[in-house]
Give the backbone structure.
Amino acid sequence: QVQLQESGPRLVKPSETLSLRCSVSGVSISNFNYHWGWIRQPPGKGLEWIGDIYYNGVTHYSPSLSSRLTMSVDTSKNHFSLSLTSVTASDTAVYYCARRGETAMVNPYFDSWGQGTLVTVAS
Amino acid sequence: SSELTQDPAVSVALGQTVKITCQGDSLRTYYASWYQQKPGEAPALVIYGKNNRPSGIPDRLSGSNSGNTASLTISGAQAEDEADYYCSSRDSSGNHLLFGGGTKLTVL
């Protein structure tokens, strides 16, 4: 059974860096069938794709966040990470990590999700 | 365009059929996936690809596609289907992913 678990600080000050880790169990993060993604949801609002990473380190980032975003993967520890710099109050959200598959190698879907972690940006 | 558009809210009488739609140019090329989210919970995949259901998803949920529109149909809606539903797919460039704004489904 695949499980994903987000971890990291719940409170970040404005202008600082938000860092989260997603620990994966039940499947190897090196499985070539999957990418590993981050999605966020501001309180009371909809879902926003942040980006995703493949086991070999290839990343895809949301254009609106790419200038502040870095994702990394550690296959030896079976986890992947997100770093978002220069945060503001608008980055306050529940952050989810998720496993992404594809049908016919082009149609994406997120089939396993972490429980999510609320990160608040405030001084 | 780089958007997926959903109606903000839809309602359905208990036991009736409802269709939730998602519009976007990229849907002419890529299939959407659909997610159900209940309050306080993480989203859960309900439909992916042409019309695939993960194990445990009842067959009263189904997906379809026509032109620039993807649809999630719930046949014989149950009280437990009341939730927010999100579609997702690639943008027109194919390089990035998008979510629709979500549809709040109320079962009356």
Notes: Chain B is about 0% helix and 45% strand.
